[in-house]
Amino acid sequence: MAFPEMIPMTRRCFFASAGLAVAATGAAGAEEKRSAGADDLPKAALLSDGESKTYLLEFHTGQEVMKGLLAFARKHRLVAGQLTGIGAISDAVIGYFDPETKTYLRNREKGQAEVLSLTGNLARYNGEQFFHVHVALGRRDGSARGGHLFEATVRPTVEVLLTAYRRTVRRKIDPEWDLPLLDPKAE
Q1: How far is it, in rounded angstroms, from Cα 78 to Cα 67?
Q2: Across all residues in the chain, what is the average pLDDT?
Q3: What is the value of pTM for the model shown?
Q4: How far apart are CA 112 and CA 182, in angstroms?
Q5: Does an H or E element contain 23, and which?
Q6: Which of 119, 164, 168, 173 has its CA 20 to 30 A from that of 54?
Q7: Distance (Å, whole) CA 120 – CA 131
């Protein structure tokens, strides 16, 4: 039995993995940030345009889910929301937060898997869109793996319902955990 690759995930690495350019400065960093995920941008349909907007996002083979979500949120200037999804992927990186070390351990999940559940939220952190997404993956043998989603390569599709809200929701660093947690008081 092969064990998954376990890499400690510091807070700085967590931000980078979530698609935030924490250390990017200057025009080159801004240009790179704008183009990041453009190839991963999903097809989209607006399903509801009321007080909140609901989008159907359709990812295709080879696209990267987290990059695509971030590209979509940036393109539409979304400030808060929630999402749910299903589908199938060929590879993923999922994480487990270790409270003793206050770091994320990363587990690479190689091979085809069903996305049994994809759920998460969107908020703002340091002026940028920030997705916090969890996933449950079903394996060929019926077993399941899950955790915080850092990366997922689509094969053949991932279907996401994203409901976006007008009111901004923000995250701030929690001093006890050194993590960007939701701050319901901030706007």
Answers
A1: 15
A2: 86
A3: 0.81
A4: 33
A5: none
A6: 173
A7: 7
**What's the pLDDT tens digit per position in 84-101?**
999 999 999 999 999 999
Domain range annotation of the chain: 6-20+45-182
- The torsion angles phi and psi of 30, rounded to 5 degrees, stand at -65, -40
Long-range contacts, 145-148 (Cβ 8 Å, 24+): 145/94, 145/107, 145/109, 145/113, 146/94, 146/117, 147/94, 147/95, 147/96, 147/107, 148/94, 148/95, 148/96, 148/97, 148/104
DSSP class per residue in 88-157: EEEEEEEEEEETTTTEEEEEEEEEEEEEEEEEEEEEEETTEEEEEEEEEEE-TTS-EEEEEEEEEEEEEE
User: From CA 16, how far away is CA 74, in angstroms rounded?
Assistant: 16
Q: Which CATH architecture has domain 6-20+45-182?
A: 2-Layer Sandwich (3.30)
Helices (H) and strands (E) in the chain, counts: 3, 9
pLDDT category of residue 145 using cuts at 50, 70 and 90? very high
Rounded distance, CA 4 to CA 181, Å? 27
